[in-house]
Amino acid sequence: MELVDEQGHPIGSCTVSEAHTAPGHLHRAFSVLLYDDEGRVLLQQRASVKTRFPLRWSNACCGHPAPGQSVAAAAAVRLAEELGVEADPADLTEVGVYRYRAEDPATGRVESEWDHVLIGRFEGVPPQPDPGEIDGHAWVRPQALTEALAAAPADYTPWLAGVLAAAEQGRASGLAPIVSD
């Protein structure tokens, strides 16, 4: 995976395991939020076998582009791998970057990410969720999700609130999701 400096510039690479071992290394990542026609967002519950924040609810998918790989291309691959959702990278709109650091108390692993937030459109039920990645999914209205995050933050990944805020700000400023079927 691609390591970055505090401004998001590439400075090297390392394995996923190295990047997420304490104290952690700042690296490029992405988070995708998918919206439906009603303005709801698709959440996934992370699988119990995940090495970071298992069984917590999160955005549609997350991942790490390879060094030099387009963030949107990497995100489209992960959507297909995790949910079975086919998306053209051109149908994913980057709406900002959310920089965060979080330690998982259950596993001792660390997230230190320069997280590109992308939004897209999807309707229905994920056709082929990978059980090694996802235990469940749900459609939720953004306002209800914001309230749930405040009421029970331990039920959600620590990046979800920031990712949702970036996505909603992007949508409010006219960066509406593009249809991807």
Could you please describe the fold and organization of this structure?
The chain has 181 residues and is an alpha+beta fold. It has a domain at 30-93 and 115-172: Nucleoside Triphosphate Pyrophosphohydrolase. The protein is built from 4 helices and 9 strands. It has helices spanning 16-19, 71-83, 142-151, 160-172; strands spanning 2-4, 10-13, 27-35, 41-46, 57-59, 61-63, 93-103, 110-121, 134-140. The strands form 3 sheets. The chain has a 4-stranded mixed beta sheet, sandwiched between helices. The chain has a 3-stranded antiparallel beta sheet with strand order 5-4-9. The protein has a two-stranded antiparallel sheet with strand order 1-2. The longest helix is centred in the middle third of the chain and has 13 residues, at 71-83. It is globular, with a radius of gyration of 15 Å. The two termini are 28 Å apart.
